[in-house]
Amino acid sequence: MRKFKKILIIVLSIIVGLPIALTIILFTIGVYLYCTADFLQPNVDVDLNQYELSINTDTLRVCKDASLLLNQYGLWEAKISGSSIERGAKYGVLSQDLLKYQEDVFVNQIHEIIPSEFWVEFLHKLIIIFNRNMAKHIPEEYREEIYAMSLSCTNEYNSYGSPYVRQLNYHAAHDIGHAMQEYMLVGCSSFAVWDKESETKDLLIGRNFDFYMGDDFARNKVVLFVEPTNGYRFASISWPGMMGVLSGMNEKGLTVTINASKGAIPISSAMPISLLARHILQYASTIEEAYTIAQQFETFVSESLLIGSSIDECAAIIEKTPEKIAIYKSSTSQVICTNHYQSESFDSDEYNRENIATSDSPYRYKRLNELLAQYSPINPNDAVDILRDRYGIGNTDIGLSNEKSINQFIAHHSVVFQPCERRFWVSTAPWQLGEYVCYDLDEVFAVDSVRTTSYAIDELNIAADSSALADEYVRVCRYREQFKDISAAIDNKRRVDSSDLYNFIVNNPHYYQVYDIMGDYMLTQNKPKQAIVYWQKALSLEIPRVGEREDIIEKIEKYD
Question: Which of 424, 448, 466 is the endpoint of a domain?
Fold first, then answer.
């Protein structure tokens, strides 16, 4: 018996002690990975005293030959030149207050998603561990540029890392958003037409960049004009501090836009896709050159890069995963890019097949195909109409903010490129409903001296959608506020006035989410039968993803 007790004690000790031992081991490994993370901060001396502002107003800043101007349309226009260090230092000094605002918004958004400071700190450490080898994949030119720019960033968030480390991590925000696709942070639509599908026969490209971190995050849009010492001059559209490229065109008439695709959840980082797009824009003039560059760099997410080329007089899609790369060329005079792969190389890819079967990407693809046929041959005004389209296949009303729409009322920016003319149009707030402002790249770079007026070509602007601003915009804003109120009522099991519930439905009657959350609310009020009625109504409408439909079916089965 004593022997048995002794064995039992040993066994119990092992059972109890093993999890503790594993915890200690994992903690030790985590600490080691965190402490040994190396973001390869450039060893360069940058004297910001050499980059003092000669003009500093609310709407215009000038630093040496660089400038930052807020135009009448609410877009910031920045023009920088020189070496990597010079470009970064100038941009940082010019945009110091904007960098602070952008980081404030980003951090506040994270705290809104994750209210606990403990978990925010935990997430920060995980990101450091995850991105510990990222810098090794980033060319020194861009690390120097980001470092010089980061010297003008706030020290308020140094507990999350040095300004350089934070800014480097921010350049992977789009990539990290891949792992959070359930939150719909990323999901873009783009297209290109040429030859008979284009009114002028020349290449025309349209895209919505649907990266949503709240409306405040998109408040300060920057049209950045860059004259690097090495490579081609280019323009890109993004936010303060983003030196990578999300949407852009260079002086050779090559364009790059990025669209997230589905892949395995990455376990470590590599080159952020925005910096790969930047490298292509700065150093490629043709589709083949772009493809060659894309083959040279390892990335950690799955992405589609729509490449337009005035030299090639067409567009193609570079489809890239951490393991594989392919190029898709259309057999017609148009190409459509949403969030799934189209080349034969990915026909049997399990993640791509699952994405096609379960996501909203194929639906938006079909809708774009429908719209392109409807408007053909297409001009820039038509392209804007397509990018603003909020209806479903067959022009059916699928509700405001539906992820199956081309216009989901979340776009950070929308842009139309005319590569052969070196022209492009950038949307103004809200989303893509405001005026599209026209720029001519040749005219911008023809100006050698510092310009203190806007580069916009006012007479070529495309008018705001006044009808949508008076109707859909108001309804979308109202819907999102109402949705927040009902969500809070569900969390607190609080009653909502019946008139408010009625107005909520009437405001957006064709959107499945309205009836889904109404069902959830009725359940908290101990009205399961009414809840089921609302959930069944939701099932009769267009639901973006299969998983969302299955969740609703599961709720009906549970409470029926």
Answer: 466
